[in-house]
Amino acid sequence: MLRILSTFHLLLQVGKFIYYYRQMANTPKEEIPVTDTPKDNRLKLTLSILSILIGLFLFISLASYISTWREDQDIVQRYGVKVFSVKDAEVENLFGVLGAYTGHSLIYNGFGIAAFLITMFFFAMGINLFAGKRVFRLWRTFKYIVAGLLVISISLAFFTQGAEFSWGGATGELIKDWLIKWIGKLGTMILLITVGLFYVIWQMNPSLKFAAGKKRKAANGSLEENDTATAAEADEAKLFIDESLETNNDTHKKGVAVIMPKTPAEDDGEEFTLIDEDEEEELMENNEEEEQFILTEEPEFTEDIVPRVPMTPTKPVQAEDIPDLELTQNNENIPSEIIIGKEEKTARIEVKGDYEPTLDLRNYKYPELDMLELHGTEKVIMDKEELEENKNQIINTLKNYDIQIQRISATVGPTVTLYEIVPAPGVRISRIKNLEDDIALSLAALGIRIIAPIPGRGTIGIEVPNVNKTTVSMRALISSEKFQNNNFSLPIAIGKKINNENFIVDLASMPHLLMAGATGQGKSVGINALLISLLYKKHPSQLKFVLVDPKKVELSIYRLIENHFLAKLPGEDEAIITDTKKVVTSLNALCIEMDNRYDLLKEAACRNIKEYNEKFVKRRLNPEKGHQFLPFIVLVIDEFADLIMTAGKEIELPIARLAQLARAVGIHLIIATQRPSVNIITGIIKANFPARIAFKVSSKIDSRTILDAGGAEQLIGKGDMLISYNGAITRLQCAFVDTPEVDKIVHFIGEQQGYPEPYLLPEYVDDKELAGNGADLSDRDSLFDEAAKLIVANQVGSTSLIQRKMKLGYNRAGRIMDQLEMAGIVGKSQGSKPRDVLVQTEAHLMEILDGL
Ligand SMILES: Nc1ncnc2c1ncn2[C@@H]1O[C@H](COP(=O)(O)OP(=O)(O)OP(=O)(O)O)[C@@H](O)[C@H]1O
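Structure for DNA translocase FtsK, as requested:
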């Protein structure tokens, strides 16, 4: 027993030491004057070396004791502590009497072989001190060592009964004897095996705990590359936080009231109590900000929770007062205070910060990069022989025509190589230009284009197609820095230039795009590339497409996202428009939408959609007055020629109107055609589409029609294109996105929660249809009653109110207003001022309506 007591005394001292060490570490650090710093480091270094030396000493003493115990045990046992002063006490231990005494105390009197665990503690402490940070967790190490000492010593004592050497030490043997006495040999064996199994299970299945820890780390925003959490876990965790923060970020900044009682489920805190003391300690030390996540047992990562913010209680609200938050296209039902938490009747969060349009579909996930594929190698293949051959051909051909050159250089692009030549002084540029066909002949290659001169470079360019062409994958463009980190309103990744630079522009500043190209040259792929770029960057609340597809098959794939990204006419089943008559109606509806948006902008005193939306987001525009967040609208027409042939002016006029005016209100047009002839791309259309793309066309005339320059007839197809933008014509290789990729992306979006229906365009009724219907009360408009209620409720007799609120065209709204006047609900027209409303109450109105 004495043997054991002395060992425990030693352990107690070690425990005490750790306690004081921890106390010291946790006390707030005093500012150390700069001049004192070296002294401080010296102390740490000395202590660390000391600790490691103690560890080494213990290890060697114990190891030595294992082989010398027969000789030394007797001596140490005979003299006890006095062994240090006895003259003829000769021992074999490598560390002499001290080593023998230590080995004997820790192994024989202590824990047997398990005593080696004690050395680990000193090594851990030494390493921590040396590194100046916590490489090992001391408290945890200490706990493991104590547990290990007991379990291992008892087990060894049990399983090595009768051995000469004391494998389990005095402690192991004593406890083993007690156990055998209390629960018998079999019971002891089962107990020890169970403890061993328990340890193995505990070590093998710590995943829950780790996951929680990692989530916390990742969620804290420090998604460093070397973080042990996998990207997926980090994403998941970030999402959790994003979801919880999105409603509260602004609140946080502004210190607005947040009341969040715990739900019963939260009280369980199952997932979140898994963090153990050590992790907590580590988190606290590593990152002060994390305190807000770990100092609480509330579930930090559930969707509803909020980070701790200064709290001021809001006025208590009855459960019935909390309205259901419906998903709607227009944000009119969202008051300036958003109320969340209809299910948990007592819980509510009030957000008085900025309006956030994306909250309509708060769980919407953008498509992932993995949904796109890399088509072949992204590296441009440069064939030196080919380059050399072409260079010599060009020089020789020019020589044949007596044209000398000073210098020639080459830039290898994905599909073509640009040879730039600097002619000798005195050579006329037009001579080279005229030799285009001859050079093409001598190079025996299709698709030679001569740019004489290259604007701004003072050289002449000869583009020669590569023998081995590289496909430009959409994935490469989407993952590029420029695409990911731009602040364009409508970023579109079109393709790569000859110098392999990515061509990524803002559709909003183009502001419309005309595309032409003979069949099979890459137009459909081009349209998909544009649509996919926008889908990768925009939230459904920020963008709507009006898709016109007379061929019926090209854009039908996008019908899956109609409740997310498409707009349609009221009362229509299909959002994608394939019928010419409906195209006319849709274009006119878009014109009405444009006019309505202009009215809104005028009222808000904003010059464009950006300013307007900024104002709306800042809650400076009242939704009660018809204001709403305006998504961008992109009209895509896949085959324009077909429409013009069948509907002519009826199509051309609204298109021209939209092209002229719609830019400021966020409506942009992408129009594609196979036949770029002058009767299709008329002067009026061309004048309003400054940005134009030409894929390979069949004649120079077509090229001129679309680009005002030749060259598109020389292209080589498969996405090789010329874009005329900002006054310059650039040759690009269009990004390639295959149908299965588009399919994957639209499925991914389509499977997510969307709006209840597509975005509704205003109703358009053809004037001709209205012509027969005068302001006759016996033939009232079907929306007459609704309009009357609207006017009476608002007490404003304005046609534009009917237009906006009921999404009607000007003509129809005007006609309803005339009928309201005849019914005595509003007064006479007063020019630009609203009419007087003659009915004050709804009850009065109902009487009038009943009498009609
Ligand atoms: N950017 C590109 N990179 C590589 N190959 C392309 C590219 N664009 C198109 N192609 C190839 O050309 C083929 C035809 O393209 P696409 O279907 O886009 O032509 P199109 O002009 O729309 O034809 P149509 O007018 O008949 O629909 C594609 O199937 C593809 O193999």
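The domain at 384-462 is CATH 3.30.980.40 (Threonyl-tRNA Synthetase; Chain A, domain 2).
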